[in-house]
Design goal:
The chain contains 16 helices and 27 strands. It has 556 residues and is of the alpha/beta class.
């Protein structure tokens, strides 16, 4: 008798980290499985550790090999950490994509704004709807989050039903869209949930996330109390917050000026899809300077300190249309993502130096998270009654806290996993049964590099210790034809005793060459390696750092 199909799960991104979400589900046997991918997101480069890297994406080499068995890619919602890698990686997969209307429209607008973006078709599924994708029947269950049309996915298979929560929270009074569908989640619990693959982002925080309605009231109060110009910055994708800012501006008799391409794009898509029905029209940046100071509100991108976004340019006083002065106010209606603290702090300090009042969530309820706190996690477990819970969407601490909470709530099996783990969900006992290739891809300009890329490793080294360039011209007899050329980049001009580094390195190059036997001098590769080692050693002796050294040998 044939064995029943196994249902397996593997995270390829988003576990042990925040961002870069990619999960895959497989149905079949060990020889052949049909695969379903959920989300394909990015995380953002850190200039300190990854200079020049704009975006980090999951390694999809496993899915490339399984391309003929990949039934489709389903999107839970349209945040960058869930759909930001599609334009770059979809051409390697070319699978069908499924999303609800707002996510599909925002993705289409994102493609239109990218140069040379491939034509990527998306099948639109209604919110609350179901679609057959190979052997998977996927149901889109509305959940509250900080962007319209976020959905948990109930993935129905012959081997059981998995609930993949995506990003969610419980907000009984959202200012936009549907609340989390408790009724349907309870029904699923009665029908039987094999596994809950759940958001862990706020698993360390007690209680419940406040409602968007409370934030909207606070923003109205702050905008009405402001005397001069007001700027508000938030995540461009948070349409509920955009709507709240518009209501505050209307209550204070101010015009809303939208500043920043990402914000303009989301506002356009939100209007097209009906999420800003009844909201006044916004103005373009050109009119900002012509409006009285107490009649204008600038809605800006840049809440995470992005150097090219509107708020950074305003704080540096180099925005062509938007300026702020003493007595004006800036409301940060956002929380700083870990890793962005320095950049955000720099913007706040620059604004304060200009005499601008800065209002943040440290002092006012101007932001709430879109993720569930501990009481909400307990509710989800109670409603869905999963046989197995796997924490995802979080760093190690978040995953472990979610796991402990699940065990205390009586979930029969809880598994903490890592990116690349292959987990059998059912039938039978769940557990880690293997590993699939996983890792990171770096977007470096227009090129995708893997994490072992020489360019990325060398640039990190150069950022730390500069680089030495040496050019040597040798005769065929193994003699110096001319003085060596030395160029030092990112290396101090002088050592502790005031001696020029150029002279120190030049002397080291000459003495190294003169000290080599003739045969070694006539071997360009051997000569270059000897000079490279000598230069790094002498710089280390005088500075305490060993920079990369590039040596070019020319025979004349």
């Amino acid at each position: 008798m044939a064995k029943p199909d196994e249902l397996v799960f593997a995270p390829l991104g988003g576990v042990g980290e925040i961002g870069m979400n990619l999960s895959i589900y497989g149905l079949g046997n060990r020889q052949q499985r049909a695969w379903l991918a959920v989300d394909l997101g990015v995380s953002f480069g850190d200039e300190e550790h990854l200079p020049g890297i704009d975006l980090i994406m999951p390694d999809i080499s496993f899915l490339e090999k399984e391309r003929k068995n990949l039934m489709g890619l389903v999107l839970t919602h349209a945040h960058e950490d869930h759909f930001g890698a599609i334009i770059d990686l979809w051409p390697k997969l070319k699978c069908p994509i499924y999303a609800t209307q707002f996510s599909a429209a925002l993705f289409e607008a994102k493609c239109a704004a990218e140069r040379n973006a491939p034509k990527i078709p998306v099948t639109v599924v209604p919110s609350g709807g179901r679609v057959d994708i190979g052997p998977f029947n996927v149901e889109f269950i509305p959940v509250a989050h900080s962007i319209p049309e976020a959905h948990a996915l109930a993935i129905h298979t012959d081997a059981g039903t998995v609930l993949h929560t995506g990003d969610w929270k419980i907000d009984p009074t959202p200012t936009l869209g549907s609340p989390t569908d408790e009724k349907r989640l309870r029904e699923l619990g009665e029908e039987g949930v094999l596994a809950l693959i759940g958001d862990s982002t706020n698993a360390v925080r007690d209680g419940r996330s406040p409602s968007e309605a409370e934030v909207a009231r606070t923003i109205i109060d702050l905008v009405k109390a402001a005397k001069g110009r007001v700027a508000v910055t938030t995540f461009a994708s948070n349409v509920a917050r955009i709507k709240a800012v518009a209501a505050a501006a209307r209550a204070a008799d101010r015009e809303v000026v939208v500043v920043g391409r990402a914000m303009e794009r989301v506002v356009q898509v939100a209007r097209e899809t009906g999420y800003l029905d009844g909201v006044q029209n916004f103005r373009s940046p050109e009119v900002y300077g012509h409006l009285p100071q107490d009649k204008v509100l600038a809605l800006c991108t840049g809440s995470q300190g992005e150097p090219r976004a509107a708020l950074a340019r305003i704080a540096n006083d180099d925005h062509p249309e938007i300026t702020l002065n003493r007595g004006d106010s800036v409301i940060f209606s956002s929380r700083t993502i870990p890793g962005n603290e320095k950049a955000v702090g720099s913007i706040i300090n620059n604004l304060v130096l200009q005499g601008v009042e800065v209002l943040t969530d440290r002092d006012h309820l101007v932001h709430v998270s879109g993720h569930p706190r501990r009481d909400e996690l307990r509710d989800m477990i109670a409603w869905t009654k999963p046989q197995l819970l796997i924490p995802v969407h979080g760093e190690a601490l978040h995953l472990n806290e979610h796991a402990k909470l699940a065990r205390a709530a009586g979930v029969p099996r809880v598994l903490v996993v890592r990116n690349g783990d292959l987990i059998k969900l059912g039938p039978g006992d769940p557990g880690i049964i293997g590993e699939v290739p996983s890792g990171r891809l770096y977007k470096d300009g227009t090129i995708l590099e893997d994490s072992k890329s020489r360019a990325v490793v060398e640039r990190r080294r150069m950022a730390f210790s500069g680089c030495a360039f040496v050019a040597v011209a040798m005769t065929e007899q193994g003699e110096l034809a001319d003085d060596p050329e030395v160029d030092l980049v990112g290396i101090p001009d002088k050592n502790r005793d005031g001696e020029p580094f150029d002279d120190i390195v030049f002397d080291a190059v000459v003495s190294t060459i003169e000290g080599l036997p003739k045969a070694r001098r006539r071997d360009a590769d051997a000569l270059a390696e000897s000079v490279r080692r000598a230069v790094r050693a002498v710089i280390n002796e005088h500075w305490g750092k060993k920079p990369p050294c590039l040596v070019h040998v020319l025979t004349v």
